[in-house]
Design goal:
single chain, about 800 residues, alpha+beta, 6-stranded mixed β-sheet, 25 helices, about 40% helix, about 15% strand, globular
C-alpha cells in the first residue's frame, strides 16, 4: 500500500506543472487576438518554460540513461519520471592532474568519491539526495519510519525544473552549475589537500565542462577545474592547481545481488549494515562480503557440478599507455585467477583484453565506469593498488581499476637482488632478465586483482610452510613461498647458496582456490544470506587445522604469525638464513653495482634498501616478545582465541635480538662502502634502527600485554623478566671492564630516552588506544626499579679501568637517570 500511495503522489506532482503550462498556452493564444502582434507573450507564472524554449533546435542531444542536451554553453539532463527515486552511484575520479598531487599517491584514475544518490522531485525542483544503507529495517515494520527519520539523506544539489518533455514523461534540468562550480561532494580536492595547498577558491573563468556522454546505464562527465592556490604541489609560481575530473553516474540493478555473510575465518573486504528490524534486544550489525556478480548461464549444469561460463564475466582492459613489452605479463597476471574461479564452478570468469582501438570502440575511456582497467601511471611512486567500486546495498563490485605505478618494478628488481642474490646468480645484476622481471610483474598484478575481487591481505599464509621447505626445489616449484598470493611474501630469502631448482618468486596458492570458492560459489536453493550460513560454515570446518587455509589479519600488531614480508613457520630460523644471505650480498654489493656502472648511485640506493631488509628480519623475531597468537575460531570449534607466545620462545627471541640487533653489526657499517656513498651519517644509520627496536620493545602496549599474560598465568614471560633481560643485554659492558664503542653508546642513550618516556609520558587512552591505565599499572614501578638498579651498576662501572669516552659516557648516563627519576 505504501508504494501505491507514493506512486499516486508522484503522478499528481508531475501532472500539476504540465496543467499550469497548458493553461498558460491557452491564455497566450487568447491574448494574441487582442494585443499587438509584435509584443512578446507573457512568461509562464511558474517559471517553467515550454520544452522547445529550453531544448531548442540548436541542441546537441545524446540519448542514454538520461537524454543529455547541450544548448550553447549550457548542459541539460532530461530525466525520465520513472528514473526518479532509483538508486544510482555517483563516482568521482581524477582523469588528469598536476605532478606530485597528494605526495605522489594520487594519479589519473584515482577515485576521490563514491556516493549512492537518488534524483527526487520536490515542488518545482529536482534534488540530488545522498542515500545510505548503513541503517536498515524491513519497510513493513513500524520501526522503518524511525530509521528513515533518524537517517535523513543530505541534499547534494537542488535544480530548478527548466521544462517538461513534450509527453510529460521526463523533467529537464540545467546541470551546468552542478558540474562547473566547486561542489565539494564531487570535488577532486579533499579538505586536507585544500588546507595543505592553501586553496583559495575555484576560478570560474578557467573552469568548464569538457564534455558529457550518455550511455544505456551510465552518464560520463568530464570537467576541467582550476583552483587558485598559494602553495600548489608543482609549478608553484603559477599559484594554480588544474585538475580534469571524470564524474560517472551509473544506474544500479533494480534487483540487488544476493548478499553473502562475512566470516572472520575467511578474509574478505566487507561492508556492514545495522538492522533495526532484528528481534534481538539491540540493533543487529550484519556484515557482508564484497564480490562481483557471477551467475551461471546454465544454472542446471552448474548445479550438477559442471563448469559453466558466467552470464557476465569480469573483464579487465589494459591501459593504452601500457608499454608493449609488459602487456603479456599483465594479461597473464589477470587471467591467473581463472584457475580459482574454476574451483568455484565458473569457466572464463575473468578475462583480460588489450586496449581497443578507436575503430573498435570510439567511446573507450579508462575513466568510464563501464570499464575495469589496469591503469599504467607515469609516476615515480613505487606501488600498485587494486581498489574497486561496489553497490552499498549488496556488496556487488561494479567496477575496478588496478593502479600500476611506473617505478614499481625498480623496487622489485632491488629486492630480488638483495633477498635472493646470495642463492640466485641471475639476481646479481642491475639488469635483471626480462622474463624474470615479467614473472614478478605478473604476480604483483595477480595480487592486486585479488584485492579487486574482494580479497584482503592474508598475513598468516607465509606461516603455512616449514622453513626447510624453502630450500627444497621441488617444493618451491609446486607451492611457491606462501599459501596465497595475497600475503606480503615476495621472495624466497631462505634458500641458501647451492640449493637447486629453487623458485624465488611468489605464486598463487591453495588458499586462493579456497577463498574464491567460499565467496563466489553459488549455493543451490539458498535464496537468502541466512540460508547459506550452514554451508559456508561447513566449508570452513572442513579446512580447519590446516595452516594452508588459515587467515591472518593485516591490522594485527601483536600476532607474530600474522606479519608482513615474512616467510616460514619459525621466525628465528628463517631470519638466521636471511641474515646469512644478506651478509653475503653486502660483501658483494659494490661488485654488482658501482663496479659495473662506474658510479655510486645504485650502490647508495641499494645500501639503503639493504638496511630495510635487515630491519624487517629483525622485526619478524622481535614480534615474538609480548606476542599473542590470534586464532579466528567459533565457540563450537573449541580452543582459545588469544594465546601468549610460549615463554621459552620469547626468551630465545630476546637473546636473538641482542645478538643480531643490539650488538654492533660491523658488517652493516662497512667503511669502504659508506665512505663512497656519503660524507657523514655513518653512526646514524645503525642508531636509527636500533632505537626503533628499543621503542618497539619498550612500548606501553607491549608492556601491558606482558603484565596481562603474567596475571592470566604466572609461568608466562613477565614484563619484569623482559625489562631485566633487556637491561642486561643493552648494558652488558657495565658488568665487566670493557670500553663501549660509539654505536653502543648511542644505543644506551636511546634506552635511557625511552625509559624516560615510559616514566613521564601522559597518555590519552582515547587517542592512543591503550587498553589499561598506565599511571595505575606496574609499568612505572618496574621502570623506576630498573633505572635504580642500572644507576648503581654504571656508577660502579665508571670507576673501573675504562677509556675516557666510556667514563664520560657512564657519568652522563648517571646524570640522565637522576633527571628522569627526580626532574627537579
Amino acid at each position: 500500500m505504501k508504494k501505491v500511495v507514493l506512486f499516486t503522489l508522484t503522478l499528481l506532482l508531475c501532472s500539476v506543472p504540465w496543467s499550469i503550462e497548458a493553461q498558460s498556452k491557452r491564455k497566450n493564444k487568447k491574448n494574441q487576438k487582442t494585443e499587438v502582434p509584435a509584443q512578446k507573450p507573457k512568461k509562464p507564472t511558474n517559471g517553467i518554460k515550454a520544452y522547445d524554449q529550453v531544448i531548442t533546435k540548436n541542441a546537441i542531444t545524446d540519448d542514454g540513461l538520461f537524454k543529455v542536451h547541450k544548448v550553447g554553453e549550457k548542459y541539460f539532463f532530461e530525466i525520465p519520471n520513472d528514473h526518479l527515486g532509483k538508486d544510482m552511484l555517483l563516482v568521482s575520479r581524477i582523469a588528469k592532474l598536476p605532478s606530485n598531487l597528494g605526495g605522489g599517491f594520487y594519479n589519473a584514475g584515482t577515485k576521490t568519491g563514491q556516493r549512492l544518490i537518488v534524483w527526487e522531485r520536490f515542488d518545482k525542483k529536482i534534488l540530488i539526495k545522498e542515500k545510505s544503507y548503513s541503517a536498515v529495517a524491513d519497510e513493513e515494520l513500524p520501526i522503518s519510519i524511525s530509521v528513515e527519520s533518524n537517517n535523513y539523506a543530505p541534499t547534494l544539489f537542488a535544480f530548478d525544473i527548466a521544462a517538461f518533455s513534450k509527453d510529460s514523461s521526463a523533467v529537464v534540468v540545467d546541470v551546468t552549475k552542478f558540474y562547473s562550480t566547486d561542489v565539494k561532494a564531487i570535488s577532486g580536492l579533499s579538505s586536507r589537500l585544500r588546507t595543505s595547498y592553501k586553496v583559495r577558491n575555484l576560478d570560474a573563468t578557467r573552469s568548464f565542462i569538457n564534455g558529457m556522454k550518455s550511455f544505456a546505464q551510465n552518464i560520463e562527465v568530464v570537467q576541467d577545474m582550476t583552483y587558485n592556490a598559494t602553495q600548489p604541489p608543482s609549478t608553484r609560481s603559477a599559484q594554480t592547481i588544474s585538475l580534469q575530473m571524470n564524474q560517472s553516474m551509473i544506474l544500479l540493478p533494480e534487483e540487488p545481488m544476493q548478499s553473502r555473510f562475512a566470516d572472520d575465518r575467511v578474509g574478505w573486504f566487507t561492508y556492514s549494515q545495522v538492522d533495526y528490524g532484528s528481534e534481538k534486544l539491540k540493533a543487529d550489525r550484519k556484515t557482508y562480503i564484497r564480490r562481483w556478480r557471477l551467475e551461471p548461464k546454465d544454472p542446471e549444469a552448474y548445479a550438477r557440478g559442471e563448469l559453466v561460463e558466467p552470464i557476465k564475466p569480469i573483464i579487465y582492459y589494459l591501459d593504452p599507455a601500457t608499454p608493449e613489452s609488459l602487456r603479456k605479463y599483465i594479461k597473464e597476471g589477470i587471467e591467473l585467477w581463472q584457475g580459482p574461479f574454476e574451483k568455484a564452478g565458473f569457466k572464463n570468469a575473468i578475462i583480460a583484453k588489450y586496449p581497443p582501438t578507436k575503430e573498435e570502440d570510439p567511446d573507450f575511456s579508462p575513466e568510464d565506469i563501464r570499464y575495469s582497467v589496469v591503469r599504467y601511471v607515469a609516476s615515480e611512486t613505487r606501488n600498485a593498488v587494486g581498489p574497486s567500486v561496489s553497490d552499498p546495498r549488496s556488496g556487488e563490485i561494479i567496477e575496478s581499476d588496478i593502479i600500476w605505478y611506473h617505478n614499481h618494478l625498480r623496487s622489485y628488481r632491488n629486492r630480488y637482488l638483495l633477498e635472493t642474490g646470495a642463492a640466485n646468480p641471475s639476481a646479481r645484476t642491475l639488469d635483471t632478465p626480462a622474463e624474470e622481471i615479467g614473472e614478478m610483474m605478473k604476480m604483483v598484478i595477480a595480487h592486486e586483482v585479488g584485492h579487486a575481487l574482494g580479497l584482503p591481505h592474508n598475513m598468516s599464509a607465509s606461516k603455512a610452510y616449514d622453513v626447510e621447505s624453502y630450500r627444497n626445489g621441488a617444493f618451491t616449484q609446486e607451492y611457491g613461498i606462501a599459501s596465497t598470493i595475497m600475503d606480503y611474501a615476495r621472495y624466497n630469502y631462505i634458500a641458501q647458496p647451492g640449493d637447486q631448482n629453487i623458485r624465488f618468486v611468489r605464486k598463487m596458492g591453495p588458499y586462493d582456490d579456497y577463498a574464491i570458492n567460499w565467496g563466489y560459489r553459488m549455493i543451490p536453493k539458498a535464496t537468502t544470506p541466512e540460508a547459506e550460513k550452514s554451508t559456508l560454515d561447513a566449508w570452513i570446518i572442513a579446512k580447519a587445522g590446516d595452516p594452508k587455509f588459515v587467515f591472518g589479519r593485516q591490522r594485527s600488531r601483536f600476532d607474530p604469525t600474522s606479519q608482513t614480508e615474512d616467510i616460514g613457520n619459525d621466525a628465528i630460523k628463517a631470519s638466521n638464513y636471511a641474515l646469512k644471505n644478506l651478509k653475503y650480498v653486502a660483501q658483494n654489493l659494490p661488485a654488482w653495482t658501482s663496479s659495473q656502472t662506474n658510479n655510486y648511485d645504485d650502490l647508495a640506493e641499494l645500501h639503503g634498501e639493504l638496511l630495510s631488509c635487515y630491519n624487517r628480519y629483525i622485526g619478524h623475531v622481535l614480534s615474538n616478545v609480548g606476542g599473542v597468537k590470534e586464532n579466528l575460531i567459533t565457540p563450537s570449534q573449541g580452543g582459545i582465541g588469544y594465546e601468549a607466545v610460549p615463554k621459552l620462545l620469547q626468551q630465545q627471541s630476546m637473546q636473538w635480538v641482542h645478538k643480531n640487533a643490539f650488538e654492533t653489526q660491523n658488517w652493516l657499517v662497512d667503511k669502504t662502502m659508506l665512505q663512497n656513498i656519503n660524507y657523514a651519517g655513518y653512526t646514524e644509520s645503525l642508531r636509527r634502527y636500533q632505537s626503533r627496536y628499543l621503542s618497539s620493545l619498550l612500548s606501553f602496549e607491549r608492556l601491558g600485554r606482558l603484565i596481562d599474560h603474567e596475571a592470566i598465568n604466572p609461568i608466562n614471560y613477565s614484563a619484569l623478566a623482559m625489562l631485566q633481560d633487556l637491561r642486561k643485554g643493552i648494558w652488558s659492558e657495565a658488568a665487566v671492564t670493557k670500553n663501549v664503542d660509539v654505536y653502543r653508546r648511542n644505543l644506551q642513550r636511546a634506552y635511557l630516552d625511552r625509559m624516560g618516556y615510559l616514566m613521564t609520558e601522559k597518555l590519552d587512552r582515547a587517542r592512543t588506544n591503550q587498553f589499561y591505565d598506565v599511571s595505575q599499572s606496574d609499568v612505572r614501578a618496574l621502570v623506576r626499579g630498573e633505572l635504580n638498579t642500572l644507576k648503581r651498576q654504571i656508577a660502579s662501572a665508571a670507576a673501573r679501568q675504562v677509556n675516557t669516552v666510556t667514563k664520560y659516557h657512564y657519568r652522563d648516563c648517571v646524570k640522565r637517570i637522576e633527571n628522569i627519576l627526580d626532574p627537579k
